Amino acid sequence: MSDAVLSTRTALVTGASSGIGWETARLLAGHGATVLVHARTAAEAGDAVERLVAAGVRRDQLVELAADFTHLAEIAVLAGTVVKHYPALDLLVNNAAVMAPERCTLTDDGNEISLQVNFLAAHLLAKLLRAPLSAAGDARIVNVSSSLHRTASMNWSDPHRVKKYSRLAAYAQSQLALTMDTCDMAPAGSGITAVSLNPGQCDTALLPLYGRVGAPAAEGAAAVVKLCLPDTALINGEYYDGGDLAPTAAIAQEERSQRRLAKLADQLVAQA
C-alpha cells in the first residue's frame, strides 16, 4: 500500500510499540504520512521503528518519541518536543492503553494508573498540542476507545476507585472518560475534528479483558486509519465502531457530564 494520500501530513501515534498502535503507524506510513512513533521508552520506540522499516516503511518517514504515560511530566515533555519540531500536526491518534491491574495502583501523580494512561494522557496531549493541531487547518484526533465504555459509570466522588476497586470497572471507566472527553478536545473554531472509536476485539495485550479470541491487530488498525483519511467524512465528537458511526453510552453525550469531566481532568493533570 502506497497511495501517498497523507504524504504532506504528520501523525503522532501513541502506544505505537505493539498491537493496534504499531499497525496504525505502519498503515499511516503506507499512505505516505510522517509518523511520530511513541513508545514508553526510547528502546521500545527504537525497536518499533526497526520493525516498521523491516516491514517496508521508509526510515525517513519515522520519528522515535518516548514518554512513560505513568508520569505526567514526561507527557508534557513529549508534547513540548512535538510543538518545537512540528508547528503543524495533522493527526493525533490516542491509542496508548494499559490493562488495569488486579489491585488499585496509583501513579506517582496520584491517579489510578489506567485512568492516567488511557485517558488523562490523551486529555493532556490534546490540550498541549492544541496550537500545532489548529495550525494544520483540518487536523483530526482519533481516540481509540472500547465497547466496554458502554458498561461503565463515572465514579465522580472517587475517580481512582480507591474505596471500591474492580479492574474491569476501572478500565471501563477510563474508556468512558476518553469517549466522553472527545468533544472537549476539539472546541468550536479550533479547526480540529475529534472522534472516538471501538477498533473491535483484537489480539493485543488487552485481549484478556474481552475474551480468548481476537482479530489480527491490523484489522483494528485499519478501522483507526479509515478515520484518519481525508476522504472519510467525520462528525465531531461522535463515536465509531469498526470505522462506522455508532451509538455511544448516553452519559458520553450529556453536555453537563462532559463539562464536569473536563474540569476534573484539568484538575488531575494540573501538576504536569
Topology (elements, then pairings):
Elements: E1 10-13, H1 19-30, E2 34-39, H2 42-54, E3 62-66, H3 72-85, E4 91-94, H4 113-128, H5 130-135, E5 139-144, H6 167-180, E6 192-198, H7 217-226, E7 239-241, E8 244-246, H8 255-268
Parallel strand pairs: 1-2, 1-4, 2-3, 4-5, 5-6, 6-7
Antiparallel strand pairs: 7-8
Main beta-sheet annotation: 8 strands, mixed
* Helix-strand pattern: EHEHEHEHHEHEHEEH
Q: Roughly what is the average pLDDT, rounded to an integer?
A: 91
The low-pLDDT segments are none
Report the strand count: 8
Question: What does this entry show, briefly?
Answer:
The chain has 272 residues and is of the alpha/beta class. It has 8 helices and 8 strands; from the N terminus they run βαβαβαβααβαβαββα.
Structure description:
The chain has 272 residues and is of the alpha/beta class. Helices cover 36% and strands 14% of the residues. The chain has an eight-stranded mixed β-sheet, with helices on both faces. It is globular and about 50 Å long.
Features:
alpha/beta, 272 residues, eight-stranded mixed sheet
